[in-house]
Amino acid sequence: APEMVWKLSDFEIGRALGKGKFGNVYLAREVKSKYVVALKVMFKADLTKHKAVHQLKREIEIQSHLRHPNILRLFGYFYDDNRVYLILEYAKEGELYDKLRKMHAFDNQTAANYIYQIIDALECCHSRKVIHRDIKPENILIGANGDLKIADFGWCVHSPSSRETVCGTLDYLAPEMILRQPYNEKVDLWCLGVLTYEFLVGKPPFEHKDQLVTYKRIVNVDVQYPNEVNDLARSFINGVSLL
Ligand SMILES: COc1ccc(/C=N/Nc2[nH]nc(C)c2C(=O)Nc2cccc(NC(C)=O)c2)cc1
User: Fold this and answer.
1) Higher pLDDT residue, 183 or 140?
2) What are phi and psi of 65, to 5 degrees?
3) How close is the Cα of 95 to the center of ligand 1, in Å?
4) Residue 226 burial (C-beta neighbours within 10 Å; 0-12, 13-18, 19+)
5) Do the interacting molecules here have an ipTM over 0.85?
6) Does the C-beta of 97 come closer than 6 Å to ligand 1?
7) Whose CA is nearest to atom 6 of ligand 1?
8) Handedness of CA 5, 46, 53, 172 (dihedral sign)
9) pLDDT-derived band at 178, boundaries 50, 70, 90
10) Is a pLDDT exceeding 60 seen at residue 109?
11) Minimal CA–CA distance to 243: which of 191, 204, 190?
12) Cβ of residue 94 lying under 6 Å from some atom of ligand 1
């Protein structure tokens, strides 16, 4: 389909889904088709101030070309004098982060089902030489039938809930990124191990209130498993993170 040039009046705006540093996400409906989307609104001034314009352009370029059921679709974007608007797929069940907090941890079956979907999405990214780099529960949304959607614009968006912005949590950083060594798509597999651990335990493996301790524990791969993590899960986490 020829690239459509969208404008704000093509949409009816609904409730705010989430508010964040770079802008807010609103439920919206395209007037002609009645198709429901999520409209992310960012202020140009904010993007410029945080030198995030180049990153946004790159993310739009990547996201609009990735087509996969477990990757949140970017249908298009437009801008006016002072805002940039992203037309995103609407994932009805919201952030996986909130579901994980409410359930404390997932059982083996749920965790396995979710990790399978993330692996599928990462295979799609890696086959196109795209490194996601930011796989964590905050960046994963849940669709209407419980399917996961990796939604990564790298911005910290926090919902109306009391959660403070978790911008730049170190917990998911791979050792090679901490040590500023060259990295490849294997960093996504590291994050997959961290994510699996957090699904089963309820918190990430290297979490510590002192950031320096977190750094050290990541670089030393200092992971301890509580009893509830069975041997198969442990060997999966060790194996996938050290690939
Ligand atoms: C506050 O309760 C909520 C429950 C469900 C939602 C659904 N959001 N769905 C989305 N589809 N496409 C995008 C992009 C989004 C989205 O950004 N959601 C979002 C953003 C920031 C915070 C939250 N919070 C939660 C709890 O999901 C959701 C949003 C909020």
Assistant:
1) 140
2) -100, -15
3) 6
4) exposed
5) yes
6) no
7) 94
8) negative
9) confident
10) yes
11) 190
12) yes
Q: Return the HEC string of the chain.
A: CCCCCCCHHHEEEEEEEEEECCEEEEEEEECCCCCEEEEEEEEHHHHHHCCCHHHHHHHHHHHHHCCCCCECCEEEEEECCCEEEEEECCCCCEEHHHHHHHHCCCCHHHHHHHHHHHHHHHHHHHHCCCCCCCCCHHHEEECCCCCEEECCCCCCEECCCCCCCCCCCHHHCCHHHHCCCCCCCHHHHHHHHHHHHHHHHCCCCCCCCCHHHHHHHHHCCCCCCCCCCCHHHHHHHHHHHCC
**pLDDT tens, position by position, 23-46:** 899 999 999 999 999 999 999 999
Q: Which residue has the tokens 């002072």?
A: 82
